Amino acid sequence: MGDSMDVDAPIPSTSKPVKEVPPAHNLPWIEKYRPQTFADIVGNEDTIKRLSIFSQQGNVPNIIIAGPPGVGKTTTILCLAKILLGPSFKDAVLELNASNDRGIDVVRNKVKMFAQQKVTLPPGRHKIIILDEVDSMTEGAQQALRRTMEIYSNTTRFALACNYSEKVIEAIQSRCAILRYSKLTDAQVLARVIQICRNENVEYSEDGLEAIVFTAQGDMRQALNNLQSTCNGFGFVSAENVFKVCDEPHPLLIKDMLLECTKGEIRKAYKIMAHLWSLGYAAEDIIKNVFKVCKNLDVDEPLKLSYIKEIGITHMKIVDGLTTLVQMSGLLARLCMIGQGIEYKS
Ligand SMILES: Nc1ncnc2c1ncn2[C@@H]1O[C@H](COP(=O)(O)OP(=O)(O)O)[C@@H](O)[C@H]1O
Ligand SMILES: [Mg+2]
């Protein structure tokens, strides 16, 4: 008899939320603020201008967009396809990204089937096959792709995106116009972040936005994700909150540490390093941030270059597996010596 009570109770409460449509504010900001036209895409102006001319004439070659993550490669390709195909976008675009299976068979069958399909398009327009992150496709699959590109060249165009164009086989490279994107500048990221903060009524401090830009390092996707995580987690974007969310060593500590090195103050520098170590940061996290901070450190250029070289060498050792506090201290010792103009043998 008690059973029926237990069974009945949860039903009304659980059944209701299921019907509710997720509210718009649940959308990740990277999607909500994905630019819909070329004009909204920040940075890499020259390349985008070229594409925009291509798209007006309708005569677009196969393209590869190569560049670091989060700078708008996929967005550019989607914009281009929308301009070229307008309402036919749904029928005339095949999009395959890294989460799809893209082995040789898929390229042979799916891509080929799509390339053979008849779709009525305005004269001079082509169907578009979008392959995101081509550099993660096996060489076999790329070879299969190359043949398809050739056979269907009068009906279909390929738009490829990748991080490293060297990882795309040469046969494909030579059939495409290669467009290279570079990282966005801090100013470009900042401007967009401020715009989104205004739209979303985000409360922020100036150092909070600086922290967002610092953690993003020219990657807009990272910037927007960090911004949204900080807002969701703390409701206020301050440097402190941003570094808590991103779980990175605080750059101000690292900056102090490097400045102590320039003065030859090994003990003080070591104290900061030992503190970071005790907080549980991995050697790799620390060295990456030491590099980021050193890039913008306010010291003489030659000194900065020597520092960057030492940091790079230590980074290589860390990648090789030498991830101890002793390694990190060794770096500080060398930085102190360089800072004091003392020669040493490595
Ligand atoms: N140049 C840019 N201008 C404006 N927003 C950008 C830009 N690059 C990236 N973004 C933001 O980051 C998200 C991911 O961009 P995407 O084009 O997928 O990057 P990727 O270069 O890695 O393909 C976009 O939805 C957009 O919100
Ligand atoms: Mg992409």
Automatic annotation (TrEMBL):
Q: Name one GO biological process term.
A: DNA repair
| Pfam families referenced in this protein's UniProt entry, alphabetically | AAA, RCF1-5-like_lid, Rep_fac_C
Q: Which UniProt keywords apply?
A: ATP-binding, DNA replication, Nucleotide-binding, Nucleus
Which cell locations does it reside in? Nucleus
Q: Which GO terms describe its cellular component?
A: DNA replication factor C complex; nucleus
Q: Which Gene3D superfamilies match?
A: 1.10.8.60, 1.20.272.10, P-loop containing nucleotide triphosphate hydrolases
Would the keyword Transport be found if you checked this record's keyword annotation? Answer: no
| Limits of the AAA+ ATPase domain | 59-191
Q: What is its main location?
A: nucleus
Keyword Calcium annotated:
no
Query: Could you identify this protein by its name?
Result: Replication factor C subunit 2
Give the organism's phylogenetic lineage: Eukaryota, Metazoa, Ecdysozoa, Arthropoda, Hexapoda
